[in-house]
Amino acid sequence: QVELVESGGGLVQSGGSLRLSCVASGDTFTNYAMGWFRQAPGKEREFVAARSPFSGASDYTDSVKGRFAISRDNAKNTVYLQMNSLKPEDTAVYYCAARRGASILVRTSYNYWGQGIRVTVSS
Fold first, then answer.
1. What pLDDT score was predicted for residue 105?
2. Which secondary structure element, helix H or strand E, spans residue 71, and what is its range?
3. What span, in angstroms and rounded, lies between the C-alpha atoms of 109 and 34?
4. What is the rounded CA–CA span in Å between residue 27 and residue 68?
5. How far apart are alpha carbons 103 and 110 in whole angstroms?
6. What is the C-alpha to C-alpha distance for residues 48 and 91, in angstroms, rounded to an integer?
């Protein structure tokens, strides 16, 4: 059982930045790959980024490459999503997710989810 709690969302103008945080508890953090997903109004939930437990391996969806950066601090059981150069199309509810295992080669089969946190980008 893993509990995930997100923080750091809010309202920002186009071109601004936000950093989302997700604190995990309930199991050994380094047993899990960590990811971020988002769901925009009227759209399906989509993959945003993922980070492996130990190596620097990461994965991003094309629309955020060069703007977003995922990182993790295993000592704090925390994963971050730094979001820069935000656009109105980034507006969504963002979800932290965990999948047991080290692989980030697939973007499915995440087992645990946070409650979601809203990010709104105004034009």
1. 80
2. strand 68-73
3. 11
4. 27
5. 11
6. 13
CB 39 within 8 A of CB 93: yes
- Residue 72, C-beta contacts closer than 8 angstroms, at least 6 positions apart: 34, 51, 53, 78, 79, 80
- Which residues 6+ apart lie within 8 Å of 61 measured at CB? 46, 47, 48, 49
Tokens of 56: 């620097």
Structure tokens of 43?
């759209």
Q: Which of 92, 108, 110, 112 is nearest to 4 (CA)?
A: 112
Convert the pLDDT of each residue in 36-73 to its tens digit.
Answer: 999 999 999 999 999 998 878 999 999 999 999 999 99
For residues 17 and 10, what is the distance between their CA atoms, to the nearest angstrom? 10
Residue 18 corresponds to which tokens in the numbers above? 């936000």
Residues facing residue 12 across a β-bridge: 121
Helix (H, G, I), strand (E, B) or coil at 105: coil
Size of the chain in residues = 123
